[in-house]
Amino acid sequence: MPTQPQTPTFRQIEYFVAIASRCSYRRAAEELGVSQPALTTQIRSLEALLGLSLFERSRSGTLLTPEGRELLEQARKMLLAMREFRESAETISQGLQTTYKLGVPPTLGPYLLPRVLPALHAQHHRLKLYVREGTPRNLLRGLSEGSYDIAIVPLPVDREDLSVEPLFTEPLKFVIPADHRLAGKKTVSPSQLRGEKVLTLEGQHHFHHQVQEICQDLGADLQRDYEGTSLDTLRQMVVMGLGVAFLPGLYVHSEMHNPEALHVSEIKSKPIRRQHGLVWRASAPSRRLYRELAAQIREIVSERLGDVVEVNQGIT
Amino acid sequence: MPTQPQTPTFRQIEYFVAIASRCSYRRAAEELGVSQPALTTQIRSLEALLGLSLFERSRSGTLLTPEGRELLEQARKMLLAMREFRESAETISQGLQTTYKLGVPPTLGPYLLPRVLPALHAQHHRLKLYVREGTPRNLLRGLSEGSYDIAIVPLPVDREDLSVEPLFTEPLKFVIPADHRLAGKKTVSPSQLRGEKVLTLEGQHHFHHQVQEICQDLGADLQRDYEGTSLDTLRQMVVMGLGVAFLPGLYVHSEMHNPEALHVSEIKSKPIRRQHGLVWRASAPSRRLYRELAAQIREIVSERLGDVVEVNQGIT
DNA sequence: ATCTTTGATAATTAATGGTTATCAGCGAAT
DNA sequence: ATTCGCTGATAACCATTAATTATCAAAGAT
């Protein structure tokens, strides 16, 4: 004797509705593709479970009882709910039709996504991306914890539990005030940087460390007293003459249409740049979709931003 | 290999939601009172059926996939629908909480039910009666066909497939115009009726035949040229002097408060009356409730109309 | 009367869902 | 580095459930 309140089987509900709408066990059985005794036993046990009679059987047809009539409505709702469930599953299983939680660094997202998302949406109008910004460090942690499904982060990422698909390589531009002694030069050699105060973001940002490395390479000095909280503040600081800075190419491309008080140069040496990749948990069942997504992002970027960044090869 | 589009088991949905809301197979298993492998296999087959992954399993906990996250909502709706179904069944199985289709003759319903239904409703506030009028003949046919669940009809009813519970016996009153030669007499003997034109309803009404029999007994003449379509028209016809009539006691009681132009007498002989009973299909699973209902109707009638009709004993 | 149709029943088999015992991978604590 | 405790997956087995076919009895139609 089960102590728990038993719940009906979905199949029983199905049979119930089928019989009720045909007013016949046999016809319902035929329609359902099962034998008639199957219905008899299922309905009997359902009735026993509910503690009431659903049908009034007679040798001449089957009739709903008042109780059955009442429950039929509810039962139909169940069928409907199940149908909707299955339909959702159907469309979702087609791929790229769901909401994915995407993480991006604040030094990339606002300058990349507005160029990419519309095209992506056009291709998969059921695909939704729930975008959240975070530093690469937090993004990777969030990935592991499941608060993100995918993320765009600077490469390299060397973690066994994560899969990476490279997207594109973005140059970093050297930015100086318009009244700076180096302003006007198209290229600047590393030796000319000696003694320059290079501004950068706060230490928690990955971008900070990147610039730090670059400065070590080039022999420039990091200005650690004033650190920007965003690329925009960084740019303002340069304009105010607090120093020079390296800014991501996509930022320069999207935010600095009119040069105003700033001058943008190249560094004459090995190229200064950062690489972005799409990452996800290696165990993610949707990994095939993510690869597809990466490919499409590359395609879109190559089409719309090909002159700003260099698109990478996908891992094949 | 099943060619039909398989549908998930309700149990699978249940397990799915349980695991998703606990983020753990083992905890969900514990809560559900089953072993953990049971969940593993059920979810696996559900995933196979849907063609997508619901969970991302790892050795350190379980995570919903984006697809699973999407479906979880739908799955919860299913649980809800099932819960509502079961709750409905629960209350309905308590008895007298549903809508029953009740048939009454037009010569009784309007004069009986307004006195009975309110009290009935007070006792069972979930009970609903869907009342439809029809001649007894049609009521009995409708019962067999299932368009009524129960009906109040004149007795006797002699049908094997129907169960009858007697309710009460109602006297028929002799009604004459105020200016009639017999007006003013409290009782009238059958011999005084000789030659009187007795008005009645149209032939399709059971009441017609009843009056016909009475007239044969008493030696009175039926006026067949003008027949009323309702008790009200019948009364009007008597007022207009077209003849005399027999009217049901309940009608007289509820519609003729001020005697106006009509006089009501008794017939001095064997009592003239009709008996009403509650009938239902003998095969109806709710028959116990119907008996209960009959008992309650008797009780209410005895309380409120005991001076007008004579309440019968129930079949015990 | 006879035949068809209704749902119920019985006996049997197939499938399903559950169990216990055990495993392998990971993380945390030693 | 190793151990321990946790995760879900797996295997082998068993109980229950749900289907099958064959048959029945009752009611209606012919």
Element layout with pairings:
The structure is a homodimer of 316-residue chains.
Chain A: H1 10-22, H2 25-32, H3 36-50, E1 55-57, E2 62-64, H4 66-93, E3 99-104, H5 109-123, E4 128-133, H6 136-145, E5 150-154, E6 162-177, E7 187-188, E8 197-201, H7 206-218, E9 221-228, H8 231-239, E10 244-248, H9 249-255, E11 262-267, E12 273-281, H10 287-305, E13 310-311
Parallel strand pairs in A: 3-4, 3-5, 7-11, 8-9, 8-10
Antiparallel strand pairs in A: 1-2, 5-12, 6-10, 6-11, 6-12, 6-13
Helix pairs in contact in A: 1-2, 1-3, 1-4, 2-3, 5-10
Chain B binds a DNA duplex (30 and 30 nucleotides) through residues 9, 11, 24-26, 34-42, 44, 55, 57-62.
Written account of the structure:
Two copies of one chain form a homodimer. Chain A has helices at 10-22, 25-32, 36-50, 66-93, 109-123, 136-145, 206-218, 231-239, 249-255, 287-305, and strands at 55-57, 62-64, 99-104, 128-133, 150-154, 162-177, 187-188, 197-201, 221-228, 244-248, 262-267, 273-281, 310-311. The first copy, chain A, has three domains: 10-93, Winged helix-like DNA-binding domain superfamily/Winged helix DNA-binding domain (Arc Repressor Mutant, subunit A), CATH 1.10.10.10; 99-160 and 279-308, 3-Layer(aba) Sandwich (D-Maltodextrin-Binding Protein, domain 2), CATH 3.40.190; 169-273, Periplasmic binding protein-like II (D-Maltodextrin-Binding Protein, domain 2, 3-Layer(aba) Sandwich), CATH 3.40.190.10. The relative contact order of chain A is 0.13. Chain A is of the alpha/beta class and 316 residues long. Helices cover 43% and strands 24% of the residues of chain A. The model of chain A has no long low-confidence stretch (mean pLDDT 84). Chain A is rod-shaped, with a radius of gyration of 31 Å. Chain A has ten helices and 13 strands. In chain A, the strands form two sheets. In chain A, strands 3, 4, 5, 6, 7, 8, 9, 10, 11, 12 and 13 form an eleven-stranded mixed sheet that branches. A two-stranded antiparallel ribbon of chain A has the order 1-2. The structure holds a DNA duplex (30 and 30 nucleotides).
